[in-house]
Amino acid sequence: MPRFEIGIVLPLTQYGPERITARWTEIRAIALRAEAAGFDTVWTPDELLWRWDDRPPMGAWEGVSVAGEVAAVTATVKVGTWVMSALHRNPGITAKAVETLDEISGGRFVFGLGAGHAWPGQARTFGLPEDHIFDRFDEAVEIIVPLLRRGTVVGRLVRPDQEVPDRAPAGDPVRRGGSGIALPVRAYRPAAHGADAKADEDPEALTPAA
Least packed by Cβ within 10 Å: which of 111, 115, 135, 155? Predict the structure, then answer.
């Protein structure tokens, strides 16, 4: 039976009615304390901006940048994305980011990928696509996983030919998941397209308490 692992999600999104922002020094301290305490993984969420009609907007630090910083200041704990948005990120560039994070972390990086979501306004605010959410997710997996594991791929929605990364990471887990408000049942197939695990995310957990 596989060993049960425990991780912690770093506070990259503003929280509370005052929209408190955790500074990098605080985020780093949490990551280092989690490593010292024996946590298996520290995770960085991939959110841009949350907007509602009845409350102030909620900002967030860019998750991939923070994942790189966390990987650089830690030594043993795994560092993962919880989860990178296929809707907001080009698959080829995502593959390059993954191999770079794998290099910085010395093989400790865990790649998490989700479909993303247009709601609540972050895609439109940043001029990103809001259409074909599930098709883009499927294609992203079809492009990214072969790029990382075989170094070659042909895409459909993004562009016909993706560039091959210079160096493919060796054996890093690929996790897929997403928000319960955006994904149909078919997106939770844990073994689809070569993924090693799945992860669900409760959108209410990202909503600050009143």
Answer: 135
